[in-house]
């Protein structure tokens, strides 16, 4: 069996690792010219389901390395004012496993065949039941299954399920990261909390590696090359609809809303890494009816994009990857045919995917600032 995966995000790469482990041939096609072409280095919190799905797709020999480049988190989820005084709570504290997305992507890339600069432009189902994927800058590729893991703007979805389209929540946020130095020790209470300012919310989260990733890979799995990065604070400022200033850099846009805030908070944004900051919009995809069975399916944000405030998009994409690779292994071993295996995956994925989007949307209002007075 041969599988083409469109998209080298966490979901597509995790699937390709799971398939590699199962002895199924998989090639990944990524639109970006290089893996490091865009800012992708924010921290994620994984819950037990997502983390276990990730582990089960990775070779067991890399588990010690994975465990060394994550950390446990427990956050109190307070609401603080811009002077860091406690003014409320977002509900019960949450625990999880904190990972850096860029580090995780590099681990997941190891040993895979990934073609960069390979934006998928469309596909055709062939008379023999296989599928031919077409690309902007390379020859078509034929496989038994095409998996669209190509994110919220998925090209695969636009053909497979054209009625499923993203909804723009109107909410924008700027985010970036700042090296976690002693200077910011006093901010630790704010990690995981919401800082509520005038018309904006600022969210901070610490990424602390048990061992710096490059060093950990050198010690535990020399065949894996991980980026040379160190502990940092991820900051994200949520802006009201139409509240973003596109004429400023992301850190400048955040600072322009922070006059009179606690000096440590201002210093945190001032010292942020200019190459790792972005302005993003929150778009969601609520999956609807299942499409006609065939040799094409979807995974991750391509079919159930959540609001980041739900903290469950990556968890769900990793769960998809693990589930789909298990279903495909059954087909590869002849225990069921390919279309039945894909159907089993889609039925479960569409149900828990829709639930993940609902949960994330329920969590959104708690983070979105009140509208500014006109
Ligand atoms: C700031 C922020 C914080 C978040 N925090 C959390 C968290 O704490 N926990 C959590 O679970 N989730 C979190 N999420 C959500 C999570 O990051 C996403 O749900 C997850 O990364 C989706 O993975 P994916 O592989 O489905 O899609 P993506 O990561 O979007 O990957 C899609 C890939 O496909 C490529 N692509 C696009 N079009 C094409 C094409 N035509 N051909 C080929 N390739 C293409 C893209 O370049 C990209 O590399 C957060 C998101 C953000 C933005």
From TrEMBL:
Pfam families: FAD_binding_3 (PF01494). GO terms for molecular function: monooxygenase activity. InterPro entries: FAD-bd, FAD/NAD-bd_sf. Residues 106-339 form the FAD-binding domain. The keyword Metal-binding does not apply. Keywords: FAD, Flavoprotein, Monooxygenase, Oxidoreductase. This is FAD-dependent monooxygenase. It comes from Amycolatopsis ultiminotia.
